[in-house]
Task: structure prediction
Amino acid sequence: MTLQLAELDGAIFDMDGVITRTAETHAAAWKQLFDEFLVTASPQSPPFDIDQDYRLYVDGKPRYDGVASFLSSRGITLPWGQPNNAPGLETVCGLGNMKDKYFQQLVERDGVRVFDSTILLLQRLREANLKTGVFTASRNAAEILSAAQVTGLFDDKIDGLDAERLGLPGKPSPAVLLELTRRLGLEPPRTAVFEDAIAGVQAGRAGGFGMVVGINRGSHRGALRSNGATVEVRDIAELTVSI
Result:
């Protein structure tokens, strides 16, 4: 697949799993949370499956939405609670806050790595004077991007804190992607989206973006293409860039 830069004015990138390798970290934190919770709340339920459950229920979604989505898949209902609930309190927000605690512990222990092929593409786009932006449902975006030393590769970003402040729904709604595009002064048909989540490529397609590149590093080949990706690749290195 060739990425024709002449057809684009900019590109926006999901953070986890596309730029940073933190999708693996998020998945590990979700598994730790749900496996501990299910032992007492629903002992008959199978444990959290990092491949299947992460992809279907939490990947790319705001944290609390991910909690509610997975619990629903196991037939469990909890009160929503409040964002300031103590981590581990048996509310959607309490579980979400515990997941964030586990995630931060893993980042502190392991650091943040990036996908070199994505960094090379970002550098190429900026050399060609295309606008670049990063979006994520994470509330830790500033810290993650800084730890990965990639903040300077983007003209703007929008994260979970911004989305909450602006009242923007999470993916598969295209609201966050469209807001980032607006901030960058871009039009969706002249903008490429790079995503690794089903909800993300659905958002890109719903937003009318000119190209939606699905990065599928897992085993479910074709899942992103069937949900709206223009093209599906295992890694950005598979793309040929043409001026």
